[in-house]
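Q: Given only this backbone (201 positions), what sequence would you predict?
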């Protein structure tokens, strides 16, 4: 019952998550507020996938807006029967929510891989992914962070922002799953009611 009542609020929750994802992803291009690393392409390769901007950002934002429009009572009637119209809208919502699962899930995977790989930074051996062979072990090896001399605080910047992006895309993933569940329940219950009214069940 609670899931049914929260169908609309689930879609609305995606909007701030998507906007925050865009903002945080943009910050990855400016370590310590410095734009020179982006212009010289001295940033981690995963940053250039634009997951937080495109997939868990703009795409999720568009899906959320469409889902909210579908839930609006003034939405265009696709067929004469009200039950048919609700079923059609639920089906479209399920498809859109599944796309949301795909977009947010992909982003979450890429952000996680980027976190495991570590930052692209300058050390005594030059610019490289100096933590790539630690399989994420560097995350708790604080003494090793000082190996990154440039950008300043590169490891902390990388860990904090990627962790936030993982959390944001993870929340989007959960919300989209709940949206799918809510719409499936609505569709199945609506179909059952139609069969009962028709005397089939």
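A: Predicted residues:
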């Amino acid at each position: 019952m609670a899931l049914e009542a929260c169908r609309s609020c689930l879609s609305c929750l995606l909007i701030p998550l998507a906007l925050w994802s865009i903002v945080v992803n943009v910050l990855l291009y400016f370590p310590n507020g410095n734009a020179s690393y982006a212009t010289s392409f001295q940033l981690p390769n995963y940053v250039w996938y634009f997951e937080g901007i495109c997939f868990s950002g703009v795409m999720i934002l568009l899906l959320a807006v469409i889902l909210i429009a579908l839930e609006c009572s003034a939405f265009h009637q696709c067929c004469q029967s009200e039950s048919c119209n609700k079923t059609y809208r639920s089906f479209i919502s399920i498809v859109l929510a599944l796309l949301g699962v795909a977009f947010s899930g992909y982003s979450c995977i890429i952000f996680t891989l980027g976190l495991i790989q570590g930052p692209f930074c300058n050390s005594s051996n030059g610019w490289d992914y100096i933590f790539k062979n630690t399989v994420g072990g560097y995350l708790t090896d604080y003494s090793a962070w000082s190996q990154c001399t440039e950008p300043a605080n590169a490891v902390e910047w990388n860990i904090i922002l990627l962790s936030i992006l993982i959390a944001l895309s993870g929340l989007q993933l959960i919300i989209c799953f709940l949206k799918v569940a809510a719409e499936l329940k609505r569709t199945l219950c609506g179909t059952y009611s139609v069969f009962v009214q028709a005397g089939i069940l």
